[in-house]
Amino acid sequence: FLVMSSPSLFISWVGLELNTLAFLPILLSKKNKLTSESSIKYFLTQTLASVIVIVGGLILLVLQTELSMTVVLFGLAIKLGAAPFHSWLVTVAESLAWAPLFVLLTVQKLNPLFMIWSFSQINSNFFHLIVFSSLVVGSLMGLAQTSTRALITFSSISHVGWFLTGMAFSLETGLLYFLIYSVVLLAPVLLLENTNMSHINQLPLIPVKLQNQCILFFSLLSLGGLPPFLGFLPKWVI
């Protein structure tokens, strides 16, 4: 809410920091020792991105040039996990439980998206580079993955390209895409958590309920954006 309602880059930055600090305890889990490592990676990456955003804001105060907006966009792209600044997201995602991973891939992207729309150049060459590289890297790198978490994460990186494309048209289009993506992502995440499936080759080992397999199959098709499923609707709108 602080980021959404703020007219100032500095207050929005404070909102980003509060969000990072509030999310860190969710990352930590007593059951999995790897989460402490992933939370430190997350913290360091977010801190670096925040410093870059603030530097962009300071350049804006002094010079008022296009460079400052590009620096702000650079910092926000790291926070968003957009390609080519996505490698931290994949390593953090691999060691998370499904619920924190869902939050990381949905709610945590809202603040940077609002800030990109408000404080950076949406039609600059750098913006277009981020959009195209997210679409290409998310789609092609996903082909080489066997881990379900990595697959969902690369899918999310590809969808970030679509979020940003929507934002370039209007805030409403970007948010519509984001909301439908969140709903569509929830079904496969809940199923994968329920069946405790962390690798693709475990698919034949899912308890043979035709209902489960059909829901997983259709929800993944929807996540891929195929008609006539819900995931196709926002792509059609854009």
UniProtKB/TrEMBL annotation:
InterPro entries: Complex_I_Subunit_2 (IPR050175), NADH_UbQ_OxRdtase_chain2 (IPR003917), ND/Mrp_TM (IPR001750). It comes from the Eukaryota. Pfam families: Proton_antipo_M (PF00361). GO terms for biological process: mitochondrial electron transport, NADH to ubiquinone. Keywords: Electron transport, Membrane, Mitochondrion, Mitochondrion inner membrane, NAD, Respiratory chain, Translocase, Transmembrane, Transmembrane helix, Transport, Ubiquinone. Residues 6-238 form the NADH:quinone oxidoreductase/Mrp antiporter transmembrane domain. The chain crosses the membrane at residues 6-28, 40-63, 126-144, 175-193, 214-233. It is a multi-pass membrane protein. One of its GO terms (molecular function) is NADH dehydrogenase (ubiquinone) activity. GO terms for cellular component: mitochondrial inner membrane. Its EC number is 7.1.1.2. Core subunit of the mitochondrial membrane respiratory chain NADH dehydrogenase (Complex I) which catalyzes electron transfer from NADH through the respiratory chain, using ubiquinone as an electron acceptor. Essential for the catalytic activity and assembly of complex I. Core subunit of the mitochondrial membrane respiratory chain NADH dehydrogenase (Complex I) that is believed to belong to the minimal assembly required for catalysis. Complex I functions in the transfer of electrons from NADH to the respiratory chain. The immediate electron acceptor for the enzyme is believed to be ubiquinone. Belongs to the complex I subunit 2 family. This is NADH-ubiquinone oxidoreductase chain 2.
